[in-house]
Amino acid sequence: MSADTPQTLEALMAQALVMEREAVARYTELAEMMETHNNLEVAALFRKMAEYEGHHVAQIQADMGWADDSIAARQAGAWAGPESPESVPVDEMHYLMHPWHALQLALAAEQRAVAFFEDLASRATTDTVRRAAEEMRDEEIEHVELVRSWLEKVPQPEESWADDPDPPRYID
């Protein structure tokens, strides 16, 4: 068993809360980034994803009886890398991206969250922790399906989607 496997329901939910908070922050950041570049359609998609993740934050706090927002300092080793599995990497953003691209990024993030909770469930040492990890996994599976349904409604952009007829110019 890995040292980073939560041993209690509280530890698992603390990790989940941190992960959901990071997802809210990242989706909000991405929405603001897209608004800066006047890509309002993609910004709206990221705002909607932030809203969904915000509901998870509130639900975890309500379920656990955590009244304030100071619960759950990040546990070292909970996941590999500096960001949680559900966080969309900023370096994968492009200011000309289309909704299809934004949804692909969101889909990948939600799939990483599913895999994360599946892994925790498989390593859980108590039935309580295993069931809670499976429940979190199932909620993330719902998000995967939601994003997939949105993807069916948007066209895949043409190969030339990143061609900028008026690229930024830098003068030193």
Characteristics:
172 residues, mainly alpha, Ferritin, 4 helices, 60% helix, elongated
Question: How is this structure best described in words?
Answer:
It is a single chain. By secondary structure, the chain is mainly α. It has a domain at 9-70 and 95-151: Up-down Bundle (Ferritin), CATH 1.20.1260.10. It is 60% helix and 0% strand. The protein has helices at 9-36, 40-64, 99-123, 127-151. The mean pLDDT is 83.
Percentage of residues in strands: under 5%
Note the main sheet.
none
Number of helices: 4
Compute the average pLDDT: 83
Question: What is the level-2 CATH architecture name of the domain at 9-70 and 95-151?
Answer: Up-down Bundle
Element layout with pairings:
Blueprint: H1 9-36, H2 40-64, H3 99-123, H4 127-151
Helix pairs in contact: 1-2, 1-4, 2-3, 3-4
Task: Briefly say what this structure is.
By secondary structure, the chain is an all-alpha fold.
